[in-house]
Amino acid sequence: MLQGWIIVGVAFVYLCILFAIAYWGDKRSDEKRSIISNPYIYTLSIAVYCTSWTFYGSVGRAASAGVGFLPIYLGPTLTFIIAWFVLRKIIRISKVNRITSIADFIASRYGKSSYLGGLVTIIAVVGIMPYISLQLRAVSTSFTVLSQYPDIVMPEKLGSVSVFADTAFYVSLFLAAFAILFGTRHIDASEHHEGMVAAIAFESVIKLLAFLAIGIFVTFGIYDGFGDIFSRAQASENLEKLFTIEGAGGYSSWASLTLLSMAAIIFLPRQFQVTVVECVNEAHLRKAAWLFPLYLFLINIFVLPIAFGGLLRFPGGSVNADTFVLTLPMVEHYEGLALFAFIGGLSAATGMIIVATVALSTMVSNDLVMPVLLRLEWLRLSERSDLTGLILSIRRTTIALVLLLGYVYVRLIGESYALVSIGLVSFTAAAQFAPAIIAGIFWKGASRAGAVAGLGAGFMVWAYTLLVPSFARSGWLPESFLSDGPFGITILKPYALFWLEGLDPISHALFWTMVFNIGLLLILSLITSQSVVERSQAVQFVDIFRETSGGLRIWRGSATILEIKQLLARFIGRRRMETSFEKIEQTLERNLPDDSLAGVDVVSIAERQLAGAIGAASARIMVATVVREEMHDIDEMMEILDEASQVIEYSRQLEEKSNQLQIATDDLKAANTRLQELDKLKDGFVSTVSHELRTPLTSIRSFSEIIYDNAEMPKEQEREFLGIIVKESERLSRLIDDILDIAKMESGKLEWQMKVLDPKQVIEEALAATAGLFRQNDKVRLLTDLPDDLPSICVDSDRLVQVLVNLISNAVKFCDTIDGKVWITAKAEKANLQVSVRDNGIGIAPQEHKKVFERFQQVGNPMTEKPKGTGLGLPICVEIIRHFDGEIWVDSQLGNGATFSFYIPLAPDINLSNSDRFSH
Amino acid sequence: MKRPGILNERHAALFLFAIMVLSPPFLFIFDKSVQFAGIPVLYLYLFVVWALLIALLAFASELSRPERDREE
Cα A795 from chain centroid? Predict the structure, then answer.
């Protein structure tokens, strides 16, 4: 009763159910009542890993290699043990950066490089193509086998069929329609396809149930439990070798398959799609981490029993082991179960194809086609108002093309390969992404040059050691290509590259691709340097769990909010743009008016939104067109530099100010010290003055008392004493005059009558005033040398006379007591008038020269000699001459007399006779 | 109080354990054509070890749930 139309009808109903579930899932997602947001659906969607290769192929491989099929499932278990720190990191990075595919991830990590994105896309498309065709072949084979019921006939015995009679062709069409409908319904910034995920989860349930049903039927229906099957197999000579690993392909194959599947579970584009891109909540990973290995465990329990059951039931290899799941119920005439097995296989195949084509279409549109189109300036794409239609058509075309290519590959390769071998070819291709991603998320130093070289070289070696041989084995290349190498060059034999023999083709290819891939990635990363964008992305990826990893943008945008909005609307549509911006406003907690400038935060959020629609590399190009990235703008850079240097300048000024303050403080300290000194000096001056005043007073008082007490004192003696009193009184009044003078001069209260005068007149005035002195001391002679034509000086005449009188009276006082001589000379010297008063007295020792101009300092021993002056005469002279801008000094040797000289600048202009100009 | 990051450490330890029990030296021990209760010991070993790993993984993941928010 299993006619063709019944099988087709059941398959059609099954696919309709898939459509219904996908439609329902999308509807619920639009209503914000997601049905997929739980760890169980998430786990089931990851189970898209189990394709028809698992469903049919595991049994096939177990029949020839015993446990050799197991590493494909143990590898993912190993990976999921460390999912919490590898997968979770990838998921978090992808959420933050709105990563939409594995190509996007790698491109984004290595400086948003569109070339790298394109390269990854090409590797993915070429690498996954055999895998998709494998699924198509599995479906068509299973249909053909089932439709021959009740006979068990292998498809290859039926000869080739035309394209239009080929089930695979119709399956391709059907799946293309499904993928287009639910995979490219709309452009979403987060690239979630909830309907598709729901359908995939449903398929995972169906294929698990179907496989368990067959397993239980074979193990407990046909045979009597596990022990029964294995015991019978043990009895069969040629089956016993399958019980050991040695007979199952050896340990090198075991290890390489484990490694391959560890990488494949994350880096196959469809796995990346469901595990990373479609992940709704990264917390689901915690449960999925052990639920998914459990799923794998369950679907594998009955693989060995079915394989041995089939081998025992169909001895001699008349039936392909890949079909045991189907043919065992058929041969036992369980029609319903056979149909269920077919549906299980169908679900395994369709699930994989749908997710893979959607993932590939996203990559092709975002990382291959759009970057190229956007760079073609004559297309003026970046100016078009709405690009959502274009992107969707690119994706839809891609899905159709990928399925078409997959179908062509099936027709080309034919039946020459076992299911598992084709799948492993794709696994090895996907494993090429592992070094770039793992290094990318844990090592900041991994550079774009390294990633490009590693991926490129790995891909080329893969193509040479696995893809090209598959053509040779299918007869499209001469057989000698494999056995002797191209043109007989044995070092280049695809299965024994560089004479590496003894490994199975997969281990061989894995080894060489990784040698080149990892080697070049490491070497080039270590010897090349990263660009700014690359470095900032590297830091953001590696340090994703650190707080505030919002990118290291230092440029400032010059785009308005409106421009950013328009840009977003062009790619994701106006309605979605508006909801996006509402969200942005909520997160940033501020309003974003259209005409305001978009800050770095807004631009970077918008860029990520855009990245969700068209990929990181394209988004970067697009944002750059609007934002006119100021990073390259030399003016802006200068401004940033300028600001920096302003800050530096400011801090320099601060430093200077503080230095100045320090200096001012030092000055103040010095001034304070000086003040304290002056205060001491003042005290000293006061005490000196008191002392000087007391001397004549004491003298006056004692002589007065003597006269008062001795009334009978002789008249002469009385006169003598009175004379002393008069003299001392004069000295006292002179002293007081001098003190007043010097005090006035120092405080600046003295009034100066500055006039332009003939110095000769002044000198003669002084001589007249001292004429009395010379008359009293008749032993002293005055000698003058005063030219008549002395130039004028500007002085206060009274004060100058005071100076001269002082000097002359000193000279008279100290000159030789027997033959005293006093010389007065005056002469014009350069711009000065120099006047000298010389005597021939005892002279002054050179060490005393300075001292004589100090106050109350008198030459001679004050204890033994009676003071001859007030001790203030010369200090007053110093003050006066200094006031005239001149200088006074003494030349003298002990015993040779002394010459006191001073100079006064000449009057600047004779005509300036107006005295007021100089009065102070 | 549990140390933060204990979840990562447990998973890392479990990963090393898994690598060890699935590595050739351990497989050599069971890689013999001997049956236990009718089932080849290699098959039995692999599936039992696999089940054990999943159980330990579930244990490690689920037990430290309250610590979840403090991870990393």
Answer: 77
Rounded to 5, what percent of chain B is helix, strand, coil?
70, 5, 20
Nearest CA in chain A to B38: A227
- With CB atoms and an 8 Å threshold, state whether B39 touches A246: no
Cβ neighbours of A290 in B, within 8 Å = 54, 57-58, 61-62
Interval A618-663: pLDDT, tens: 777 777 766 655 444 455 555 556 666 677 777 888 888 999 999 9
How many C-beta atoms surround the C-beta of residue A154 within 10 A?
A: 17
Q: What is the pLDDT of residue A2?
A: 65
CB A210 within 8 A of CB A14: no
Q: Are residues A535 and A648 in the same domain?
A: no
Domain for residue A727, yes or no?
Answer: no
Q: Is the pLDDT of residue B68 over 50?
A: no
Give the residue, B18 or A317, on which the prediction is more confident. B18
pLDDT tens digits, A808-866: 888 888 888 788 888 888 888 878 888 888 888 888 888 888 778 877 766 655 555 55
Determine contact: A81 vs chain B, CB below 8 A: yes
Query: How many distinct structural domains can be found in chain A?
Result: 5
Q: Give the Cα separation of A494 and A469 in Å (integer).
A: 7
Write the DSSP string, A821-844: EEEEEEEEETTEEEEEEEE-SS--
Q: What's A851's DSSP letter?
A: G
Q: What is the dihedral of CA A700, A702, A706, A707, to 10 degrees?
A: 10
**A700 and A578 within one domain:** no
Q: Exposure of A359 by Cβ count < 10 A (0-12 exposed, 13-18 middle, 19+ buried)?
A: buried
Q: Which domain holds residue A573?
A: 553-630
Q: Which residue matches tokens 């595991």?
A: A58
- The number of distinct structural domains making up chain B is 1
Q: Angle at CA A430, nearest 5°, toward A425 and A433?
A: 145
Question: Residue A156: CB partners within 8 Å, gap ≥ 6?
Answer: A415
Contacts of A499 (CB under 8 A, 6+ apart): A490, A491
Report the helix count and the strand count for chain A, using DSSP H and E.
35, 7
Among the three residues A705, A720, A735, which one is the final residue of a domain in this structure? A720
Name the amino acid, one letter, at A306. Answer: I
- Look at the block and give the residue holding tokens 């893979």: A356
Q: Is residue A128 part of a domain?
A: yes
Give me the residues of chain A with pLDDT under 70, please: 1-2, 155-165, 186-191, 237, 246-249, 377-386, 413-420, 475-476, 546-558, 625-645, 857-870, 909-920
As a whole number, mean pLDDT of residues B14-39 equals 82
Nearest to A67 among B42, B53, B54 (CB): B42
**DSSP structure class, residue A219:** I
Determine the angle formed by the axes of helices A284-300 and A87-97, rounding to 10 degrees.
Answer: 130
Contact state of B24 with A67 under an 8 Å Cβ cutoff: no
In a domain, B1, yes or no: no
Angstrom distance (rounded) from CA B7 to CA B10: 5
B12 in a domain, yes or no?
Answer: yes
Q: Is the peptide bond before A269 cis (omega within 30 degrees of 0)?
A: no
**Predicted-complex ipTM score:** 0.88
Closest Cα in chain B, distance from residue A466 (Å): 26
**Residue A71 in contact with residue A62, Cβ under 8 Å?**
no
